[in-house]
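Section 3.1 - Work completed
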Amino acid sequence: MPDKKWIPQPKRPRTPIPEQKPEERRRNFKEVALGYTAELAIQEAYRCLQCKNPLCVEGCPVGIDIPGFIRHIGEGRFEEAYYTLKKYNFLPAICGRVCPQESQCEKFCIMGKRFKPVAIGRLERFAADYFMESGKKEDFKIDPPSGKKVAIIGSGPAGLTCAGELAKKGHKVTIFEALHKPGGVLVYGIPEFRLPKRIVDIEVENLKKMGVEIKTSAIIGKLYTIDELLEEEGFDAVFIGTGAGLPYFMGIPGENLNGVYSANEFLTRVNLMRAYMFPEADTPVKIGEKVAVVGCGNTALDAARTALRLGAKETHIVYRRSKGEIPAREEEVQHAIEEGVQFNLLTNPIEIIGDENGWVKALKCIRTRCGEPDESGRRRPIPIEGSEFEFPVDTVIMAIGQGPNPLIQETQPDIEVKRWGIIKIDEEGRTSKKGVFAGGDIVTGGATVILAMGQGKKAAQAIDEYLKTGKWA
């Protein structure tokens, strides 16, 4: 189709995305946002100014040609929009759903200076969904075989991206996944109503079509050490993308009571063991009538909204800071409020109280006020003396963050680590051990899907260079 003059419509209001009604979705696990139709996508695309110096691209960790794919959508060239995305982003359907666009690409959108920014993430999701639903087979362009083998440890967003980039270069790639299903945090940590499993499955199948082998239930550190992968199994390089799956607790009395979960355990039981499909799946998870979730990040909101869908009568977020310091996405906070999640801000738990049978019966908290900003840049919560109180709950879910699983670090002590067991890398993703690279949450702590993908992509470039030259800078 020949290029036409692009006449943007900046004053048109940002196009809303159709969603399930709150009173319906709070009791089902179907996706909340239903996605743009072709008509709505074109309408929103024409809000893009097609800037000559697109700052939105600078805000994207993988550098997508955002004006390019949006223009294709506006002109009805949806397949071209998809392939433009795929040049830069191996997982567009996933990123279009879970990336925090408001703090990345959309934050820098020029439209946002006077109006609402262009809905870049929603358009990305539309292009990816359109191609998936079209039934067309993807055209994978793969270089001739290089004769080199790479082991990827972990199949989360960093591992999948690194694997895809290396497979395109003609390298033989094998992913080792500790769990029985590939996808990492995308399948065990994000609920079905935000990211349907079928979307992740399609992306994983695409990798297999590119020749990537995936070995599940394969724990590196138990099955093989990294040294064994390099010296005995014939791999020329290794990428560590094992994420941050070790949950943190507060260290307060009562955390060992029955009815206390980490958000990681709770969401894994629901997502990966299919508790959300009970009774069709024989794997229910016990949930009480009144649930308290400690923390206010995206994981905390996922846990709170999941508890509601499993039948809890009340779900409370308990957060020690104020509304202005909430780390979760604004859209997810709004969805949670619409569904009935209750927010208890400036409130910090100090004890979990149990009954005579060892089950949770109440949460003891103290009121807080905000002080000066701490090292995180957020205002420090200060306890208010004498403000302690109890409120009855029968389930407590801790969602205050997570760190790296230490198995790799313990079995491969010549890989240098930093505080909390985070693996130290250089700017290209190289670790202190020759031939071993790392990226994603294992080097950043808990971060975003797109940031992990960006690191997987960067490391893949460095691995490709290493395999071609043998140089270890």
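Second construct:
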Amino acid sequence: MSDSGSVGANTIVIAQANDADTLDPSDVGSADTLNVARMLFGTLYDVSPDGNLQPFLAESYAYSEDGRSITFKLRPGLECEDGSPLTASDVAYSFQRAADPRNHFTGNASGFLIPSIEYTGVHVDSPLSVTIHTSKYNPIAIGLISEMMVMCRKPYEKMSLSEASTHPSSTGPYRLAEWIHDDRIVLERNPHFTLRRPRYDRVVWRVIPEGSTRTAELLAGNIDLITGVPPDQIDAIRNSETAKVETVTSTRRVYVGFNLRKKFQDTDGGRAIQDPRVRQALQYAIDVPTICEALLRTPCQRASTLVVPRNDKSGIASTPFDPDKAEKLLDAAGYPRGKDGVRFHLRLQAPRTLYGDGNVAQAIGQYLSDIGVDTQVSLLDLSVYVLLTRAHEAGPLFLLGTGGSTWSALYDMSDLSAPDAGTNYTGWHDPAFFAGWSKLEQTRDAMEQQSIMNNMLQEFHAGAPWLMLYFQPDVYGVSNRIHWTPRADENITVY
């Protein structure tokens, strides 16, 4: 293969819309970034394509009797990228670094994993044994910990945070060979990774924001796999003789969040959405099936709760499109149309390049305006939008898609693990819902856990902090040169 990243016998070239925003394993968060980082860093456990937790860097784990400590046994013979042994001390460092508030990380490990398991500390028991301590028993802790990327202490202790964001030191199947920002990331096989032999010698991630250009490059034979095929490009790929379309309904829940924080309450719309009756009314205003058919050009799996359908036993149905009912509910809530036909004004923020390339957000804005909620749609570059959402400053309405799982309803609900959780982007703090987490701590009975979860989902439905839309239909373009099956959890693995 050439240095430009062209297809070769032992190279796979993948194109996605966005570059990685960091390769610091303690701070990665976006899906595009995680896809690259997972090839660079190992985890103690990982999730198989069919949703089973399986050993990876660790070979086993055991809970303490009170459930508040989990001891992992590492596989022997693991190595860091520099060839030094990878030990329990490196695992401990990975947790300590991600949890250190002085680093101001906001990625998946620090913003979601660490608070969700209520991590309290870590202890190195021996070179191959490490114990993670939490404040309470968490039945899905192993799955959550499967997202913690393990890094080696020595190289990272020598780097500044800025250097760590661009100079990853690998513990996974590949290592960084080249990163030209906003153009490509080239990975090469890590000779010190011995758990399994990667399928390819090199993996090239190309950054191509325009969907039509990604398609053209695929059909020209310059790329093996493209993500995010635009709806208007699907037929071009299907009718080609060089590539095919692969689709899957992902576990990503696409929704409009209501940011209920104080900073938005100075506007009439920001005040209006504090009322759950208003949030419920807006649910009826959006014709989700038409958005899917017209803009995404595919039927969608509707979202009714924050739990993925395969994990959902609540029986809660999705809200139908009924604009007349939406208007009546807004009237009843005390928000009649004014002389100009407007009830109140709102701003909806959304990224340009996700969830329908901005068209979905524009459609939602129009549907809300149709019932008298004058909605200004603001489309932002993804890099700007990610920072806004992480800082909880997007809104007062914001379009977002967050990942659920193939393996656990509790995981799906963990975005709202606490009122102050980093992934509670709305600031919703319903006492009845969050009390459910305390009840779940007190039982290991599966039926009782399910009953508690169902009650929590009823509270979520009534409180309506999310305007539920659909589960993201993922569409990939795949060269006929390779055999590849998409996963519902959006992980791209080629090793």
